[in-house]
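Render this sequence as a predicted structure.
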Amino acid sequence: MELTPAPFFDDVANEAFCGPPGGAAWWVETSDDLRIRVGLWPAATDTARGTVLLFPGRSEYVEKYGQTAAELAKRGFATLAIDWRGQGLADRLLDDPRIGHVVSFPDYQKDIAAMLRAARALDLPRPFNLLAHSMGGTIGLRAVMEGLAVQACAFTGPMWGIYMSPLLRPFGTALAYGGPALGFGERLPPNSSLDFYVLTQEFAGNVLTHDADMYVMIQDQLRAHMELGLGGPSLIWLRESLSECKTLAGRASPDIPCITFLGTDEAIVGKDAIRTRMQNWPRGTLDVVENAHHEVLIETPDIRAHVFDRLEALFSGKSEAGTETV
């Protein structure tokens, strides 16, 4: 497989932005003829301990994970991240590129297949491990259920359910299924916006992180490269995500070592779905992180240190199952 170089915005993924040196990106084609982007940061050591396949969340992009890749590189792991279809620099799926969209949630598995072809072409160090955040956690859960060849998997704030208040849930569900049926599937839900969340939401009151420096880092990345940003999801995306969460909830967890991190201040994904899943995961650990928002990978320094220590242990085969509150 011949890889075509793709843009990699080193100006917002370099050491000044907490990223490791040596990052690069390539275009890869999916089986349904879409162009997506993968980005690689090598390990910092000559003898790499493996590669982390990094599955970002909705609205995210490769460069956002420079800081995560730097932590993993110091611990001997290369990182290969992906821009999912419909976001980052991958092909957008609607005329308005600010709307997040997917035709069918399992379509993301085609992006994984293309990512793995790139990993083989780049001859990345083995073993492979999975690190998946938010929507990437939904995509990653199906992947490991269907035999993704990874040694272990870790999830941060995985979207195994979408948080809705009890009062709004019946309306939200009806809208997600009824809107597309009435021909409004490519429109935004009423509570969504075309604006980029971190550029309209001040740090105070945000639901992503308690670390102001990390929040500013993301803002600066998007201001420098607005083409990376994404607004709210389409009603079809919402329908498909709810359907996928329901489908996966009915399937057993795979017998593979797993850690899932859940912040006590989580306000985006459904906590109950995460707890239920991890209570029934063989060789699985639920790590409940006190005073953490949705994105533990860019939380305060003490939280990040804890999370990356646990990831290193897991990806090195030293993790034990259980439920913990930190």
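Summary. The chain has one domain: 4-325. The longest strand covers residues 35-41.
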